[in-house]
Design brief:
Elements (H helix, E strand, L loop, with lengths): L1 H25 L5 H13 L6 H7 L2 H29 L4 H23 L1 H18 L7 H4 L7 E6 L9 E2 H4 L6 E10 L2 E5 L7 E2 L4 E6 L9
Antiparallel strand pairs: 1-6, 2-5, 3-4, 3-6
Length: 224
C-alpha cells in the first residue's frame, strides 16, 4: 500500500507544481489560459510548437520557469511510472483489484480537487502571494507589449543646430501625423544630462537634445 499512496502523493504534488508554474507564468503577463497550457505542456514534456511557445523561449523569466517545469516534470513522470509498477508487481488477483479500486477512487478525488474553483482560488491566492514575496516574477514582456515584433521600434534622434526640429514646440511639429511619438528627451544642462520624461505640447526642442521616439519604422528618414 505504501507504493500506492506514494503514487497518489506524487500525482498531487505534480498538479500543485503545474499550478505554481502556471501562476508564475501569469505573473509575467500571460493570460491564465495560455499560462496553464504552457505549464502543462512543459511539465508533461509534450513540447507543443505554437506562437506562444516562441514567447516563452524569448523571455528570460518565462524560459527559466519552463526549464524548471521540464526538469521536475521529467522526474515526476519517471517516478510515477516506477511507483505504478511497484504498486502492482508481485501481487495476487484479489490484491490487484483492491489496489486498482483504491487507485481509481484516489484519482477521482484528486480530479475533483484539481477542478474545484474554490480550491483553485485559494491556491492561486496563496501561490501568488508567495511568489510575489519571495521572487521577482512580475516581469512583463515589454517587447511584446510595445509591438516590436510587428514593426514598431524605439529610436534615439540627436537634434542638430540646423535641424528643422530646433526651437520648436512639439505641438507645432505635428510628429503624430508622421506616425512618431516622442516619449522622452535627454537634454544637456551644463555638464549633466537631464532626463525629461513628462512631455507636453508646449515642450520646446532645443539643439543637442536627444529624442526617444516610438514609431512604426526607423525615424531617421523622417528627421532628415
Amino acid at each position: 500500500m505504501i507504493a500506492l499512496f506514494s503514487l497518489l502523493i506524487i500525482i498531487v504534488l505534480s498538479i500543485i507544481g503545474v499550478r505554481i508554474g502556471a501562476i508564475a507564468l501569469e505573473l509575467t503577463g500571460l493570460s491564465p489560459e495560455i499560462a496553464s497550457f504552457q505549464a502543462q505542456s512543459a511539465f508533461s514534456g509534450a513540447g507543443f510548437t505554437t506562437s506562444e511557445a516562441e514567447a516563452m523561449v524569448n523571455h528570460p523569466v518565462r524560459r527559466r520557469i519552463i526549464r524548471i517545469l521540464i526538469l521536475f516534470g521529467g522526474a515526476g513522470v519517471s517516478t510515477s511510472i516506477a511507483t505504478l509498477v511497484l504498486t502492482f508487481v508481485g501481487e495476487t488477483g484479489r490484491t490487484v483489484l483492491l489496489k486498482g479500486f483504491i487507485l481509481i477512487e484516489g484519482l477521482l478525488i484528486i480530479f475533483l480537487f484539481a477542478q474545484s474553483k474554490f480550491i483553485y482560488r485559494i491556491m492561486k491566492k496563496l501561490i501568488s502571494n508567495a511568489l510575489e514575496k519571495w521572487t521577482k516574477m512580475r516581469v512583463f514582456d515589454y517587447e511584446q507589449l510595445l509591438g516590436f515584433g510587428e514593426g514598431y521600434t524605439i529610436s534615439r534622434v540627436a537634434v542638430k543646430n540646423n535641424s528643422w526640429l530646433s526651437h520648436r514646440r512639439l505641438i507645432d511639429l505635428k510628429l503624430e501625423q508622421k506616425g512618431v511619438l516622442v516619449l522622452a528627451i535627454y537634454r544637456k544642462v551644463g555638464k549633466r544630462e537631464r532626463f525629461i520624461g513628462s512631455l507636453s505640447g508646449d515642450t520646446v526642442i532645443v539643439p543637442h537634445d536627444v529624442l526617444i521616439c516610438y514609431s512604426h519604422k526607423d525615424v531617421s528618414e523622417i528627421f532628415r
